[in-house]
Amino acid sequence: MIAARGLERTFPGRHGAVEAVRGVDLDVAEGEVLGLLGRNGAGKTTTVRMLTTLLDPTAGTARVAGHDVVTERREVRRRIGLVGQGGAAGSEHRVVDELRTQARLHGLGRREAAERAARMCADFGLEGLEHRLAKTLSGGQRRRLDIALGLVSRPQVLFLDEPTAGLDPHSRAAVWEHVRSLRTEHGVTVFLTTHYLDEADQICDRITVVDEGRVIADDTPEALKDATAGDTVVIATRQVAEAAVAVGRAVPGGRVDKAADAVQVRVVEARRRLADILRELDHAGVDVESVLVKRPSLDDVFLTLTGRSMHEQHAQPDQNEPRERRGQRGGGGTSRTASEAAESPEPAGGTGAATASDGPAPGTAARPVPAARAASPAAAGAAARPAATGTATATPREDQ
Ligand SMILES: Nc1ncnc2c1ncn2[C@@H]1O[C@H](COP(=O)(O)OP(=O)(O)OP(=O)(O)O)[C@@H](O)[C@H]1O
Ligand SMILES: [Mg+2]
C-alpha cells in the first residue's frame, strides 16, 4: 500500500543544507499499522509530508495506494487521510460543519456525511461541542477534532503524525481504539508517528526506527526487542560475587552487572535460559531471594540502537530546526489558529515559500484534497470554505 525507494529530502539552510531524509526505503502492506519512530528532527514529518504529496522528494520515489506521490498527486490524495503534526482545526466554523464538509469533499453523500460526522463526534468525545466554533475548543479538543477530520472520510491509507501529542490519557486511549477498529473492521492501512513508545508497542504491527534521516531498524516490536535489547534477568541475593560468577557461566558472553544486593544479566529470550541460570546458581550454593525477568521496552530498543533514550530528546532541541518550529513542540501542535495563520501566511522567520511543484493548494497540508476539489469550478467553490478555515494552519507553518 506504501512503497518508498531511496526517498530523500534536503532543505536549504543558512548554515548549509539540512539533509532531513537520506535514502529511506519503506514497504507497508495493506491493512498494516506501521509506526515510524525517531527523535525530534529524525525526519518523520518530512517523510510523512512526502508520502502525502505535500512535499516533493529531492530524490527517490514513493507510491501510495497504487499511485506515485509526485506524478499522480491527485489520485493519492483521494485515497488518503492525514492528521498532520501541525493540526488543522481552528476555524471560524462549527465543529459539525467542519466534519460534514470534509466528508463531502471526499465524495460522501449528504446523509452519509452527516452520519459519519455524528459518529466521529461520539467516538472522539466531541458530543456537546458540535455547534461550537472550532477555534473556541481547548487544545486537546481541537486535536481530537483534527483526528476526527482525518478519519471522517474513511480513507484507504491513514497518516497520523503524532496524533496523540497533548491529549490526556483517556483521549489517547480513544484514538488508539479507533485506529485499531479502522484496521480490524475496515482494513485501513495506518502509517503513524508517535513518541509514546508503549503505545506504539501495543498498536503497531511493525516499527521502523529512523535516525538522522535513515532507517536504522525495521521489524515487529517483539522481534526488535528480542534482537536489539534482550531481556534482563535480575537475581536478588546477598552473595553477589558468587552469583555473578555463576550467572557468567550460565550465559557465556552475557554482560553481568553487580549491585549491592543483586546481579543482573541481559539475555535474549530469557525464558529459555532461566533454568540454566538457576542451575548454576544452585551448584554454586548461592542463596537466591528472588528472580525477576524484565522484558525490554521499545525505549530499551531505542537506547540500544541510537545510544540515547527517546525521552532525552525533549531536553535537546534540534539545532537544525528553525526557531519557529521548535517553539511548537509538546503542545500537540495546535498552537496556531486558522485566523492567526490567515493573518500571517508566511511564518515569522520566512524560511522560504513553497515551490510550484511542491505547492499543495492552500489548506491541503492537513487534509489531502479529493481530486474533485480542483477539478471543477463547483468543487472549487465548495472547497473554498474549508481551505480558508480549518486547514490553513498547516500550510504556513510547514514551510518548505
Ligand atoms: N521547511 C524546513 N526547512 C528547513 N529545515 C527543515 C524544514 N522542515 C524540516 N526541516 C529539518 O529537517 C529535519 C527533520 O525534520 P522533521 O520535521 O522531519 O523531524 P521529525 O522527525 O518529524 O521531528 P519531531 O519529532 O520533532 O516532529 C530537522 O532537522 C528539521 O529542522
Ligand atoms: Mg515531526
From TrEMBL:
PROSITE patterns named in the record: ABC_TRANSPORTER_1, ABC_TRANSPORTER_2
Biased composition regions of type Basic and acidic residues, renumbered to the chain: 311-327
Membrane topology term: Peripheral membrane protein
Positions with biased composition (Low complexity): 335-400
Ranges in coiled-coil conformation: none
Sample GO molecular function, one term: ATP binding
SUPFAM superfamilies documented for this protein: P-loop containing nucleoside triphosphate hydrolases (SSF52540)
Keyword check for Translocase: yes
Disordered: region residues: 311-400
Stretches assigned to the ABC transporter domain: 2-237
UniProt main location, coarse: membrane
Family: Belongs to the ABC transporter superfamily. Drug exporter-1 (DrugE1) (TC 3.A.1.105) family.
PANTHER family: ABC TRANSPORTER ATP-BINDING PROTEIN (PTHR42711), DOXORUBICIN RESISTANCE ATP-BINDING PROTEIN DRRA (PTHR42711:SF19)
NCBIfam families reported for this sequence: drrA
Name listed for the protein in its UniProt record: ABC transporter ATP-binding protein
Organism: Streptomyces actuosus
